[in-house]
Amino acid sequence: MANEFERIQRVVVVGGGPGGYEAALAGAQLGAEVTLVERGGVGGAAVMTDVVPSKSLIATAEAASAIGGAGDLGVQFFGRTPEGRPLRVETAVNLAAVNKRLLGLARQQSEDMRTALVRAGVRIVNGQGRLDGDRRVVVSTGRGGTDFDELEADTIVVAVGARPRRLDSAQPDGERILTWTQLYDLQAIPEHLIVVGSGVTGAEFASAYRALGAKVTLISSRDQVLPGEDADAAEVIERVFTRNGMTVLNRSRAESVVRTEDGVVATLTDGRTVEGSHCLMAVGSIPNTEDLGLAEAGVQLTESGHIRVNRVARTSVPNIYAAGDCTTSMPLASIASMQGRTAMMHAMGDAVHPIELRNVAANIFTQPEIATVGWTQRQIEDGIAQGEIYKIALASNPRAKMIGIKDGFVKLFARTGSGTVIGGVIVAPKASELIFPLALAVEHRLNVDQVASAFTVYPSLSGSIVDAARAMHIVS
């Protein structure tokens, strides 16, 4: 008779976002019998209402900005009257068409992910999953919670994501007061969009809608936008925002947002009011961990409801893992995916490299973008890490001059003495692509001379990375 370790391992994954998807796929590849429980579409909120549609919207905003800035490069757009006289052409954004396209992209991505799972042999159950102890998941599959499916499991992975936080004093109605999941129902560019919250989500959407032509007021409770990011990078973004016509209200807190007959009114704690046509509430998110039976199964949660996990995504219960925004880790799709894979490899006894959050590259999709990796300047200045700092403005880069880039920089952090690259910040168009060489350097502990010895194309924006590394040369 086969013992427990010889039979096929049964894995149940609750939630089909990036973490759940990767866990299910890795489990199937490692020979487990995998069932994925998902109540929406495969890909979860990241694909259906968050990352995929929002970054698609931002891509449209970037295209609109490129057209608007083409005149600086000598490109002019004209039509002709019937008499042959030149007529200046106006650009316009059809938001209904934009939203239809990006939601279509989201559905297609979800279907592609579902196809990949089915091809790998993963069973997909549509419904709401709940843990019944540490070895069983009960799935509500019928309307009204009348039909149930009980799934036995050797390993459970919880990847249920998070949802927008709502304030009692500013309840979204899906029409005028909106969360970021509701923006895609808009049929026209808001005349005046008030954005409450200047974190990553608020800054990205404020940037995008200003580029699309909306009047935008950004309400920030802190001294500047993006309070958790590199101070120099946040300063650049705020400067660009205001130069492009956005109103930024720093050190201001929204007490309430109410709907009026034809718009909204945001009342600040100091008594000021801001009137607009629409309001986006971007005040954080909360994990979807309530009513899942986690505490009853022995899984430790924080006061905020996030699942405590270690570096291999394991919870306080040995055979239960968790991945993504519902955990205490950083809320990034890339981390969720890595957690899912790591959890499954650990559970199946495969070789695993514990996640090192300090090596994670992250990006904010404003215009310009902000990309970061490794230790921060604040940590160096506070003495948490020992390092040297070098910053070079993109305005001095020949490629940047050619394509009209006026804002941005490359900042490099290297350990004092050895010159090992321990972090960096890039503010530039497509910084999300430019950060990869620094991510490699941090991951593989390259020093600045090794980075500087690599050839870059001339002219290229990446040349500024090498310039910064050369400036930090280790004198032997």
From TrEMBL:
Q: Which terms does the record give in the GO molecular function aspect?
A: flavin adenine dinucleotide binding; NADH dehydrogenase (quinone) (non-electrogenic) activity; NADPH dehydrogenase (quinone) activity
Tell me the enzyme class: oxidoreductase
Superkingdom as given in the UniProt entry: Bacteria
A Pfam family the protein falls into: Pyr_redox_dim
Instruction: Name any cofactors this protein relies on.
Output: FAD
Spell out the SUPFAM superfamilies in the cross-references: FAD/NAD(P)-binding domain, FAD/NAD-linked reductases, dimerisation (C-terminal) domain
Q: Which residues form a coiled coil?
A: none
Where the record annotates domain FAD/NAD(P)-binding, the positions are 10-340
The record, for NCBIfam families, names: PRK07845.1
UniProt family annotation: Belongs to the class-I pyridine nucleotide-disulfide oxidoreductase family.
Q: What is this protein called?
A: NAD(P)H dehydrogenase (quinone)
Organism of origin: Mycetocola reblochoni REB411
